Amino acid sequence: MSRIPLDPATAPAFPKAAKVSLHDLQLRRNVKHATNVIQTKRQRVVGERPDWQQLREAGRQIREHALAYMDEYLEQFERNCEAAGGHVHWARDAEEARQIVVRLATEAGSREVVKIKSMTTEEIHLNNALEAAGINAIETDLAELIIQLGQDQPSHIVVPALHKSRHEIREIFLREMGLKHLGEEPADLAEAARTYLRKKFLTVQTAISGANFLIAETGSVCIVESEGNGRMCLTLPQTLITIAGIDKVLPRFQDLEVMLQLLPRSATGERMNPYNSIWTGLHENDGPRNFHVVLMDNARTDVLADPEGRQTLYCIRCGACQNACPVYRQTGGHAYGSVYAGPIGAILTPQLQKMEHAQSLPYASSLCGACYEVCPVKINIPEVLIHLRNKVVKQQTRGMGRLNPEAVAMKVLGMIFRSESRFRAAQKFGRAAEKPLVNREGWIGWLPGMLGGWTQARDLHAMPQQTFREWFDAREKKDRGHA
Amino acid sequence: MNFRRTALRVALFITCYNDTLFPETGKAAVRVLERLGHTVEFPSGQTCCGQMHWNTGYQAEALPLVRRFVEQFRDAEAVVVPSSSCVAMMRDHYPLMAGELHDEALKRDLNVLLPKVWEFSEFLTKKLGLEDVGASYPHKVTYHASCHGLRNLGLGDGPIQLLKSVRGIELIPIEGLEQCCGFGGTFAVKNADVSAAMLADKTKAVIDTGAEICTACDNSCLMHIEGGLHRQRTGVRTLHLAEILAGEER
Ligand code: SF4
Hints:
The structure holds 2 protein chains of 2 kinds.
Chain A: H1 14-22, H2 25-47, H3 52-68, H4 70-83, E1 87-91, H5 94-107, E2 112-115, H6 119-123, H7 126-132, E3 136-139, H8 142-149, H9 166-176, H10 186-203, E4 206-209, E5 213-215, E6 220-225, H11 229-235, E7 239-245, E8 249-250, H12 256-267, E9 275-280, E10 290-296, H13 300-305, H14 320-324, H15 326-331, H16 342-352, H17 370-374, H18 381-396, H19 405-417, H20 420-434, E11 443-444, H21 452-455, E12 460-461, H22 468-482
Parallel strand pairs in A: 1-10, 2-3, 2-4, 4-7, 5-8, 7-10
Antiparallel strand pairs in A: 5-6, 6-9, 11-12
Helix pairs in contact in A: 3-12, 9-10, 16-18
Chain B: E1 9-12, H1 16-21, H2 23-35, E2 39-41, H3 51-56, H4 59-73, E3 78-81, H5 84-100, H6 104-113, E4 117-119, H7 120-127, E5 140-143, H8 147-152, H9 158-164, E6 170-171, H10 187-190, H11 192-209, E7 213-216, H12 219-231, E8 237-240, H13 241-245
Helix pairs in contact in B: 5-6, 11-12
Bound molecules: iron/sulfur cluster.
């Protein structure tokens, strides 16, 4: 738990951070419980769609097409949004995006802004930038509010406070809202948040939102949510600033037909979100008076340029891969050192960091494939993980890096596998070399160096005295002898 | 027993780790295939499918192993592999790798060869259409569905049908069948703590079944599960599916 935002550039490597999480039993219980609940709901609503696989394929193709023509669709979005009275701003990176949003909020004259849950704003640490400019950001999504009041960080892209139990949330509310009494039922907690937020909705004049989708054809922005607090932010304040990654674009309004079936089912296990907001520019006597959209690249075009990494951008941030991931389910999200945790984080974060940071993340997976199986837009996450591992290896084995023990071992093994006689010799050698480590019952309980990770929690049986091929050779010889 | 099949020339790709660490699995596979009337060949130049290198990011080391595999097995009538993850490696990645090598001939060879490559249980159920292979194994057994078998190969309940037909067996389903055991190749050493946590869940599920034996179509998962079960001195053992199917009435 930390007020310091999750930053891949400074976060410890995944294995190290994971170790800390693994010792937090309460956290692990919370994460397992919450992911189980969501997965069960998801399975139920996905199961009632006999055409689920076709829907996934349709989703995949829509996203693939949208990203292949992203430049055109973004410009179309800009034209249509501005024609409807919105202002579109382009931000090359996080720094530019922060500057634009801070400037717009300052120009609106607000010392306070209400915020709709947005992972993009978390990605660029927007709240800190606002705070530095003397603007107080108030999170209105219940989970984000819990995170903010608890001086914590989000651990899941859909359910940011998934690592907190109801009991812990009650503690935070009691402390931070200065309450004397508070029940522990979800309704009690929701009521406390409602009372706290209602005042803000009625007074704060500027709102900041993210976007689930940008629709090129109409210049509309779409946001889905569960609580209706987003709807408040979209309708009550005078100024609305939306910030979106450029990957969020969809070509046509009609594409929502597919996306709004895939997203809620995958994200929260609902057939439809309770609140679906789609708005286009400004409307007289209704909603905000000023509307800005900040379109942010922040390394997304770099991801797009890599044919194998590209599919990462098809993501619609449903979080299904996180709930299904056996690694995430053990560690929770903070160990990933980024607001994007779990399988999607393991592929997205290092790419957004231009492979300069977070190199341990592509290895934070057993490649079990559970993520790919549930992904509503069929992102082959294991394949991208392997692709990124290759990039990491290439980086790490440049120059002197060639001498790192893993790279040397892999080189040697590669050489061995390229020749039958070397392979046979290595098998014999292995048998002899392991002897000092084998106990009387024929087991190894301790291994040196890198391999020590194995024997930390597992034994290894000793190599049998005869390999399969030696057995097969002997058998053939015997057969020939008989003939 | 009469299985009324034309005898096939089966080339066994044992895989590097079965060859070295689990020869009994190979022997059992030979026994089952021969009992069913097929001949088994062992192209001796075979080594490794390249999975470990490929999955860890050492693509350059993995690429030559594709060519090696094709050279060794191109003449086979059928290739049988007692390791689901190695078959997944070949099916899912070899075509990609040939693409990376820009080798059209290799691509063509793979198009011919890959449809003839079968994971051991899949060869029995899908190629031969069998469920009962005449085995006997009077023990309590639980089946672990390895991730690659489950998701990449789509083995479904093929292995379970094979096991159900074994004489005397008591097959007990495991809780969380689709959950990874936490092996993941080099993941088990690179992320040893998380891997161990996943393993703890899996060994608990195995123990809860009350089975004496945990079986699977992949010795790499079994080596991992076995390592945990032995460390905890549970007395529960692991055994490749082939070794159960090789069991005969005494
Ligand atoms: S990668 Fe797929 S499953 Fe994961 S959050 Fe994105 S869309 Fe959802």
